[in-house]
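Researcher: Here's a chain I'd like modeled. Treat it as a single chain, no partners, no ligands.
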Amino acid sequence: MQKYNISRSNYFYAIGLSYKKADADIRGHFSLDEAGKTALLNQAKENGIESLVVTSTCNRTEIYGFAQHPFQLIQLLCDNTRGTVEEFQDVAYIYKNKDAIAHMFRVGSGLDSQILGDFEIISQLRNSARASKKHGLLNPFSERLINAVIQASKRIKTETNISSGATSVSFASVQYILNSVKDISNKNILLFGTGKIGRNTCENLVKHTKNDQITLINRTKDKAEVIAGKFNLVVKDYANLQEEISHADVLIVATGAQRPTIDKHIIQSEKPILILDLSIPKNVDSNVEELGNVTLVHLDHLSKITDKTLEDRKKDIPLAESIIEEVKTEFNGWLETRKFAPTIKALKHKLSDFAAAELETQRKKNADFNEAQAELISNNIIQKITNHFAHHLKDDDISTDESLELIKKVFQLEPTTHV
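Model: Modeled as a single isolated chain. Structure tokens:
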């Protein structure tokens, strides 16, 4: 990998933390909203980082980027979140070069998700790559890698059963409600927050609870009204949140706030209430558990719910891994091609210089010299020669590095800079 010349002088790293070692509180410390991601990208640009992609979901926060040392990327993360380097070191992972590539494939393909086959992360990666490109922080290597991961993800979705069945954080939350609350179809359900997880949860609530007493609240009311319109649900103003909580039997919190939006002081009713916090950072303060009528459940607990669907999915892991290896092999082939592409380009220029000099000589010698035909023939010969060398360099049985040095020496090619 070090010899692929994918960067001028840096290594490719994946640094981050996930549900595997970091609990919800720690993940919350390193969570990045859109403004945080933008600030991180701007700082990376100012620091001369060549290429960087940052993602932050409820299950993980990761940076994929080029650096001389991973601490450059860790510092970027800590500078733009509430997390500290000490916290990061306790729970984090750092992958380098081929291991970083392999990690991105597993994450993007749903094999590293908290719920196996949850493909939410691939859209996050795609959107993050677009943001990096806008900031001039997506080099050809990173862009090609993201596209390869997207390709693997699509194939796994269509060629395996990894994502079959309804299993996700939003489905798991509804499944928990169904198992925990009697007569759910006649209970008052309040959903606070209508982002992606909120929307998915709302759809699952309508589908599985057969409940028409679902109320939606969102800080931006028109967003809630769009969702409510699809299912004929009630929308209330954010100002009515406390009042609506007092009526609720089940409260689902799925907001994107960086600080808790629900605490014990907002709960005035003494009747039993089940609160599900689907947010990272946590949006429900743990002090609500001081109230005897409150049962609080966080998404980390919900994600541990396993059922037959997940067991069936596990059977297709080997097939998914074989698809990843196939796509990864294609990507590595592209990397190898990039390794010798500058030399082939320099060789082509050298041969073109030879041809131009010879054409000039023949032009002076022959009055009836057919320049167009001679140029066509010489270009075809140059193309065949460079193709021949390229095929030779792709041969697994030869040493590419030795062949490249020999070509440079024989044709006296200028040293090339690989990017």
